[in-house]
Design brief:
- With 215 residues, this protein is α+β, with helices and mostly antiparallel strands.
- It contains six helices and eleven strands.
- The strands form three sheets. The protein has a five-stranded antiparallel beta sheet. The protein has a four-stranded antiparallel beta sheet with strand order 3-8-5-6. Strands 10-11 form a two-stranded antiparallel ribbon.
- A hairpin with a 7-residue loop joins strand 10 and strand 11.
- Helix 2 packs across helix 3.
- The longest helix is centred in the middle third of the chain and has 25 residues.
- It is globular, with a radius of gyration of 18 Å.
- About 13% of the residues have low confidence.
């Protein structure tokens, strides 16, 4: 991890993300992380809040048996680190190499929110977005088969990464690592093209993805 010179944070957010309030942005301290480097750990003090500027990160719980349970995935513009506890219950780790994260003092942001309506509104909005992401995750977990979970996962990222030309997933897909364990073959369906490799990748025709999801 290393510090990064000042930059315009809003310029690297997803296309539909609103501009961050100037006074909140002025509190940000930028740090860059390597792939799989910890941004914060379980039981670490929750003195800071964070926003992904570029790259991506995952929130997870490390269980006593050594298994890692995924809780959320953060993309550019996502705010994270919210908790009512003095220490974090979960850990967050960078997924993409060179992930850039804006770090904010929790105490200073809370003080600013008390006097700046734009900052208070941004924090509320980010909290609601986090709840919506967790609801989406619950729907994925509640699906019946592994293939349906893969489908729901891809639809979720298609919706989050898509731009006006519908090709957001194509640009981002090369940053997503293929699974460590081989996937069982997916059923033939509109929009799927499977690459031949020891650890296969899946490519999508985005225009057909949602239609397939609806069938």
């Amino acid at each position: 991890m290393h510090d990064t010179p000042p930059m315009t944070i809003a310029s690297r957010r997803l296309p539909d993300a609103p501009v961050e309030p100037d006074r909140l942005q002025s509190l940000a301290h930028l740090r860059r992380f390597r792939r799989e480097q910890e941004i914060y750990g379980q039981d670490e003090r929750s003195d800071s809040w964070y926003r992904v500027v570029s790259g991506s990160a995952r929130k997870y719980l490390m269980r006593a048996d050594g298994r890692r349970q995924l809780v959320d995935i953060y993309l550019p513009g996502d705010f994270f680190g919210f908790t009512t506890r003095a220490h974090h219950k979960f850990a967050v780790q960078a997924v993409a190499e060179g992930t850039l994260v804006a770090c904010y003092s929790r105490q200073r942001v809370e003080a600013l929110a008390d006097e700046d309506p734009a900052t208070a509104r941004e924090i509320r909005t980010q909290g609601f977005k986090a709840l919506a992401r967790l609801q989406d995750q619950m729907l994925v977990i509640g699906t019946m088969t592994a293939q349906e979970k893969v489908r729901a996962f891809l639809v979720y990222f298609h919706d989050r990464l898509s731009t006006s030309d519908g090709n957001g997933l194509a640009r981002q897909s090369r940053r997503i690592r293929p699974p460590r364990r081989p996937l069982r073959p997916l059923p033939r369906a509109p929009g799927f093209v499977t690459g031949d490799a020891p650890r296969p990748c899946i490519f999508l025709e985005r225009s057909k993805l949602k239609n397939w999801n609806a069938n």
